[in-house]
Amino acid sequence: MEGGINIRNISIKCGNCNTYQTLSGYSRREGWNVYTYECENDICDPAVTRTLVEVPVDLDEFANRDPEWRGGGRHGEDLSGGPGGPETGG
C-alpha cells in the first residue's frame, strides 16, 4: 500500500507529563480506525490526557495487514466487544 499510514511508526507524546503514550485501545467506526493512547504513569488522569488517533481505513497499513484484528487493551485485554468492534455490539 503506497502512501499508507502505519500507526506503529507514529509516536504520541503527552502534553501534560511530556512522556510517550502507549497504544491502549482500538475501535472502528464508519470509514475510520480509531487508536487510543494513554500515559502509563501515576501523573496523568487518562480521562483528561487520553489521545485518539483516527486513521482512514483505506490508508491504515497496520489494521489492513490483519483485517480480523479487533485490537487489545492495556496488558492484552480485548476491548473490542466482538468481531465488529464495540460500536456493533459484537
Quick overview of this protein structure:
9% of the residues lie in helices and 23% in strands. The protein is mostly beta strands and 90 residues long. The N and C termini lie far apart (29 Å).
Stretches with pLDDT under 50, minimum 5 residues: 74-90
| Number of helical stretches of at least 4 residues | 2
Question: What is the helix/strand order?
Answer: EEHEH
Main pleated-sheet profile: 3 strands, antiparallel
Strand content: 15-25%
Secondary-structure map:
Layout: E1 22-29, E2 32-38, H1 46-49, E3 51-56, H2 61-64
Antiparallel strand pairs: 1-2, 2-3
Write up this protein.
This protein is mainly beta and 90 residues long. The chain has one domain. The chain contains two helices and three strands; from the N terminus they run ββαβα. It has helices spanning 46-49, 61-64; strands at 22-29, 32-38, 51-56. It has a three-stranded antiparallel beta sheet, with no helix packed on it. The longest helix is centred in the middle third of the chain and has 4 residues, at 46-49. The protein is elongated, with a radius of gyration of 13 Å.
Question: What brief labels describe this structure?
Answer:
single chain, 90 residues, mainly beta, three-stranded antiparallel sheet, 2 helices, 3 strands, 23% strand, elongated, disordered C terminus
